[in-house]
Specification:
- This protein folds into two domains: about 5-230, 4-Layer Sandwich (Glutamine Phosphoribosylpyrophosphate, subunit 1, domain 1), CATH 3.60.20.10; about 250-425, Rossmann fold (3-Layer(aba) Sandwich), CATH 3.40.50.2020.
- About 25% of the residues lie in helices and about 25% in strands.
- The protein has 15 helices and 23 strands.
- It has a seven-stranded antiparallel beta sheet.
- Strand 9 (about 180) and strand 10 (about 185-190) form a beta hairpin.
- Helix 1 (about 15-25) packs across helix 7 (about 190-200), helix 9 packs across helix 10 and helix 9 (about 255-265) packs antiparallel against helix 13 (about 415-420).
- It is elongated.
- The termini are close together.
- The structure holds iron/sulfur cluster.
- Iron/sulfur cluster (SF4) binds near residues 174 and 432.
- Iron/sulfur cluster (SF4) binds near residues 236, 379, 381 and 433.
Length: about 450
């Protein structure tokens, strides 16, 4: 998962706008950040490993001037966290130079890379997209449409070339991308929360297969590809990825998550004294569960929000305490029958440690409720879930998972309950990691394609 942002605003500070846009999209990627600007046709990019405020300061931002800008926050998986893979990337091709930021993962990147037949600077599949556009002699609109036609998998893309900002979604629309307006200036972003922060008004979501171009001659939108069926927006965006204040097709994500919790309380009721979330993504569903069940809500577990994905490993004797880097229970859990609500269980190791921690703190019972169905299959479209072998529910019954995590009881939200909570037609959602029904061809060699998730 990654965040992308783009703006054309000749009279404004486009780098600063992008900086704030990326700040709002920080949750989509914490490993690298970058901004590219176009000043009178000249492209400049600044990107580095780290969080948005670590990569940019007042001096570096003031050096990025132009009429157009794009930005990117990146989340990479094993082996992918290298400077060369930070975005926006710049690719100098036969026909033009392209700056590009990509959210998603292609399933045919290896084949396209072979076809391109020249070495690329990065190992990410995003440069394949940039190279296709940069080497195409056709006018930009046709070159981007030609590239879109060749891609299989997930691609919500922002780019700069030929003094034009372009943005598109793949034919399935796996990853979100919205169009907004700041005065008369067009803005595109992964999520509406980025529009809110820069003061832009939402125009609409880009359709699957739609291409937007903003150049000197104004804004053009083109349905470059026939949408694939009803589309396949990732259902994980609803229960985990997107920021709660983001609106997906008019539906605020927080409200959808509260409904998931309410539905879960109806599907899997339990007698208990307190409902507590696994923060932060489990919080709205826990609020919904508590409200529907009439059980008091408690913070229960305090999260240290400053722990990143990588930290120095504690020495051997402290390993068991590792989970306390992130969570610590409040004394009020002692003697209580607890309902613990999380958004998903993938490997199960964190859940097992939290359950144990709550029993160690004196909980009488720990009932785990999950606001999504069991995750049973990998994602090929940009979410680094795990391989099937690592997924605790892939080959186990709910009772076996309960036993493995040590909970008093365990229940998942049904697929129907999840779909209804999104208030979006189920036919327009990808649910492949929950159902094993993939909307595209998927590669035989899964591990190879998961290594460059953005
Ligand atoms: S497989 Fe799962 S995580 Fe991947 S796009 Fe589909 S719903 Fe989202």
């Amino acid at each position: 998962m990654c965040g992308v942002f783009g703006v054309r605003a000749p009279e404004r500070d486009v780098a600063r706008l992008s900086y704030f846009g990326l700040y709002a999209l920080q949750h989509r990627g914490q490993e690298s950040a970058g901004i590219a600007v176009c000043e009178d046709g000249r492209l400049t990019a600044l990107r580095d490993l780290g969080l948005v405020p670590q990569v940019f300061d007042e001096r570096s931002l003031s050096g990025l001037r132009g009429q157009l800008a794009i930005g990117h926050t990146r989340y990479s998986t094993t082996g992918g966290n290298a400077w060369a893979n930070a975005q926006p990337l710049l690719h100098h091709g036969r026909a033009r130079t392209v700056a590009l930021g990509h959210n998603g993962n292609l399933v045919n990147a290896a084949a396209l890379r072979d076809e391109i037949g020249k070495p690329l600077a990065s190992s990410s599949d995003s440069e394949v997209i940039a190279a296709l556009i940069a080497d195409d002699d056709a006018p930009l609109e046709d070159a981007v449409a030609n590239a879109m036609n060749r891609l299989e998998g997930a691609a919500s893309v922002v780019g700069l070339a030929d003094e034009t900002l372009f943005a598109f979604r793949d034919a399935h629309g796996f990853r979100p991308l919205v169009l907004g307006r700041l005065g008369d200036d067009p803005v595109v972003a992964s999520e509406t929360c980025a529009l809110d922060l820069v003061g832009a008004e939402l125009v609409r979501e880009l359709e699957p297969g739609e291409l937007v171009l903003a150049g000197r001659d104004g804004l053009r939108t083109v349905q470059a590809l026939e949408p694939a069926g009803e589309g396949a927006l990732c259902i994980f965006e609803f229960f985990y990825l997107a920021r709660p204040d983001t609106r997906l097709d008019g539906v605020e994500v927080h409200g959808a998550r509260v409904r998931m919790g309410e539905r879960l309380a109806a599907e899997a009721p339990v007698d208990a004294d307190l409902v507590l979330p696994i923060p932060d993504s489990g919080t709205p569903a826990a609020i919904g569960f508590a409200r529907a069940a009439g059980i008091p809500f408690s913070e229960g577990l305090i999260k240290n929000r400053y722990v990143g994905r990588t930290f120095i490993q504690p020495e051997q004797g402290m390993r068991e305490q590792g989970i306390r880097m992130k969570f610590n229970p409040l004394a009020e859990v002692e003697g209580k029958r607890l309902v613990v609500v999380d958004d998903s269980i993938v490997r199960g190791s964190t859940t097992r440690q939290i359950v144990q921690m709550l029993f160690d703190a004196g909980a009488a019972e720990v009932h785990v409720r999950v606001s999504s169905p069991p995750v049973v299959s990998p994602c090929f479209y940009g979410i680094d879930l795990a391989s099937e072998d690592e997924m605790i529910a892939a080959h186990s019954t709910v009772e076996e998972v309960r036993e493995a995590i040590g909970a008093t009881s365990l229940a998942y939200l049904s697929l129907g309950g999840l779909e209804e909570s999104t208030a979006r037609p189920a036919e327009g959602l990808c649910r492949a990691c929950l159902t094993r029904e993939y909307p595209t061809r998927v590669p035989a060699n899964a591990a190879k394609l998961r290594f460059e998730t953005v």
